[in-house]
Design brief:
This protein is an alpha+beta fold. Helix content is 31%, strand content 17%.
Length: 100
């Protein structure tokens, strides 16, 4: 019951195209690529095989990109749904609120 496409890269074509394949070892690095509905790469991170990725952070990033697209605001560091965002036309107000 997945609501998104899932694929397997058995022949490592995608890993090679995304430049995460370690040719000499025959396996890929750990890569995360967030591509929006327009096909635009919004986020890319590549980790060594000894370090895993954070599912919570990946979900937060997807939520932040969706929020930005829908609201035209900027998500500050550690933004989570329901947190304050930055209105680019009133950014001074946001930064002043941090000092109080």
């Amino acid at each position: 019951n997945l609501k998104y496409p899932l694929l397997a890269d058995l022949n490592r074509t995608i890993a090679s195209l995304y430049n995460v394949l370690i040719q000499s070892a025959g396996f890929p690095l750990r890569g995360l690529f967030i591509i929006d509905t327009k096909g635009i790469l919004r986020h890319m991170s590549i980790n060594d095989t000894s370090v895993g990725r954070s599912v919570d952070e990946a979900i937060r990033l997807v939520q932040a990109f969706k929020f930005v697209d829908e609201n035209g605001q900027v998500c500050p560091i550690n933004w989570k749904p329901g947190s304050k965002a930055i209105n680019v036309n009133k950014k001074e107000e946001y930064f002043k609120s941090l000092k109080s």
